[in-house]
Amino acid sequence: MSVAKSETSPQKITTRTVVDMKSKGEKISMITAYDFTMARIVDHAGIDIILVGDSASNVMAGHETTLPITLDQMIYHTSCVVRGVDRALVVADLPFMSYQVTIKEALISAGRMMKEAGAHAIKLEGGTFVADTVKRIVDAGIPVMGHLGLTPQSIYKFGTYKVRAKEEAEAAQLIEDAKKLQEAGCFAIVLEKIPADLAAKVTKELNIPTIGIGAGGSCDGQVLVVHDMLGLTKDFKPRFIRRYLNLFEEMSGAVTNYVNDVKSGDFPSKDEQYN
User: Which are the catalytic amino acids?
Assistant: First the structure.
């Protein structure tokens, strides 16, 4: 017996929705979240895609890179996010070394992310060399988002977080990689920290959406780490971030006021206690 959907229920975003948004010229909004509470907030605000990024390694666990976070930890964060979402598409990163060794291992990792965490899709980094892996995962019924340009899981290979694909050969390879990922079945591709004109060219040549981060305004959508966008991070200040709040200062001030009120005896007041 099917249950009728309430007229007030939010329209779920799916991978098909995202692809259709490109064809309609509607920009796609994506942001990270790593826990139930933040997921509830950004979903309620109308975000299209929530990325449970391996950036949790940085902003949640305090690691210098994304490499240390494990598949089990990513499954935990993703399951927390999924429970907080009514509308948004939830995409989860497969972490470093959970998909690079063999296609079989990649398929198992992706399957665990879907079955145990409830993710709606997975994301992995790399171009032509992961195309066969992407195809096998997609063939198993698991949607895949690609990631090109600056790929943080390969930071020790690159040795720098500088803009990628500025040279002609690397730019040509990125375009080829994007086409290979599309052929393999990716429903969208993140383009990170590449020249804006290159991102515009890739976006024009693909039928699937591009989601930019530090890749200019011609991409079909944009993504930011929520901690950066809300100003929870203080010292990380790359050019591509727009801070919509300064929560580091506001929250620090609120905690300072709480400490002072406790120490002075002002909190709790008579109205904040039981008789």
Answer: 192
The CB density around residue 5, as the number of other CB atoms within 10 Å, is 9
Every domain of the chain and the residues it spans: 15-246
User: d(Cα 242, Cα 232) in Å, to the nearest integer?
Assistant: 12
Query: Consecutive 10-residue runs of the chain (275 residues): their mean pLDDT?
Result: 48 97 98 98 98 97 96 98 98 98 98 98 97 98 97 80 89 98 98 98 98 98 97 89 96 98 97 94
15-246 is classed CATH 3.20.20.60: yes
Structure token digits, residue 163: 């803009």
| Stated pTM of the model | 0.93
| Alpha carbon of residue 186 to chain centroid | 15
Beta bridge partners of 123: 93, 145
Give, for 49, the enclosing helix (H) or strand (E).
strand 49-52
